[in-house]
What we know:
CATH class of the largest domain: Alpha Beta
Shape: globular
Number of helices: 8
CATH topology of the largest domain: Alpha-Beta Plaits
Number of strands: 8
Strand order of the largest sheet: 1-3-2-8-5-7-6-4
Amino acid sequence: MKFMIDATAYSIKKTIMNHLSTRITLGLAALFAYGQLQTIHAQDKPSFEFMHMELKVTPQNEASLVSFLEESSMSLPGQVKVTLGEKVFSPTSATHELVFSSQDGDILADLMSGENQPARTKFMHALRGLVEIQKTVRGVRLFHFGGNSSSPDTKQSTSYYGYWSVQSRDHEKTSQMFLTFAKDFADLRKANAVGLGQHVAGASSMTHYYLHTFSSYRDYVDTYNAYMSSEAFQKHSQLKQSFETPVENGLVRILRQWN
Length: 259
């Protein structure tokens, strides 16, 4: 009789332990899956969204343009950065770049809403009185690595950035190759930042762009030479040729950033 009671108790205890073990295993699996999901979301979330304008500015209008943008930026939400850059090397006749960017894409969308139409129309009319707008592009920065700023679209006056626009035939491969590049060549970029962005509208055949910041023109030259001297980077560039076609590239010097 005692044996039967002990056997029954053991069976009940074993059932309870198996049930607990199953719950713990499922709990750990769910926690792991959640962690994986959070990692994927962290990678997929765009660094920021932007509206990019290429401008042709006469020398006599440059100071007026800076003053106009400084005044206009005061009426924008603090989460919107306004960046003016001078094109140093460019395949077009544009002389400057003007970028409105934000880590909150909804704020940029609000600026394009109907209720802001009068202010936007007034701004564009005044801007066209100072510059020739040659191109406007909407896009997102998909990934961003490195740099000393907590905000990925923060730029320092007198710093530089190079850009390389491409037509990608396989967007997933482009993203994966960039992540490999960011990891494998961190020693060459040093304190600079690198980014991969995607054009959403207005960019013709250009689907993506690579961006690399530089602290100075000398830094640009030295860093560029370091990449070109790297056999590993040459192999990396050759691999991309199977799914990417270069479109254009250039170098921009930051003049001012507001907000």
